[in-house]
Amino acid sequence: MIGYGNSVFLRRNFEAGLPPVNTVAPAITGTAQEGQILTSSTGTWTGTPTITFAYQWKRNGSNILSATNSTYTLVTADVSQSIKCTVTATNGIGNASADSNSVTPIAAVDPDAQAFITAAAITDPTQQAAINTLVVDLKGYNVWTKMKALYPFVGGTATTHKFNLKNPLDTNAAFRLVFSGGWTHSANGATPNGTNAYADTFIIPNTNLSLDSTHLSYYSRTNITGPQVDMGVTETSAACYLLYNYNNLAFKAINRLEAAGGSTYTPTNGFLIGSRNSSTTEKYYHKGTLINTLTIISYAKSTYKMFLGAYSNANTASGYSSKQTAFASIGDGLSDTEAANFYTAVQAFQTTLSRQI
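RE: above sequence
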């Protein structure tokens, strides 16, 4: 009788139906990036047919308002947060819920950053993120539009190091670099050999820059006290360069006569910016701090090309450097605030790449 009674109970329970039971959890597919669409599967369930499914997307465990479809478009608020989908299965007997895997979306890639990443074939996610953040920061600080050339030196090879972030085309007109002489390329930047190495930017101040609004910047990972030039161009009537050290004086020039003056020498590692924002004043910043203001009249713009890792003396390289460079830029003049913000953005970029000074 006991066995007979159990079989009757089981038969009646089967005839009544079984509630949903999850056997394989739902799964999220799609690119976890702002603006992209994620899709959640239902997972695998047992239970008496017919089973229907409902979806609820969650951010850090809390329901996202109106996100109740199998697909969800990621928004800014989702960046760096934990996103998952709870699927609820229901039939005539009951219901049950199961959570999908969680994903952590990243920010959308700025189109200008993506253009550089594609051109330079940057595949490392950390480098990609660093480039994107740098572009977003520079635009946020309103200094992106002041740049003619930005050289971030990522990717570790001459091929990746040559591209201008502002216009990543492999042409002279786009101011991509052409390396000459002995250079060493690594994840930390590009290092000239100090004897015959330089890079041609194809930027000519007289054509591409403004007499009373020009800046140069150079991020050196090496402190060299010898007579070396980071970047620039000079001729008889005009000079525009960083940084020439002679007898403990740092000679720097922005669109004026070369011999017009020098200043007390400063360490040459870290981020150095030289900027002319008027016809009378040049300012120099080291690691975000104004270190020198020179009252020197602008005179003329050079008609020759500007080099990195040396200076162009009427298109002939001289003053060769051996400093490892991790960033350089050329463009319009910067205000004190813009220079400080520029340093903040570049230093964050270098810190992300673990090569900050």
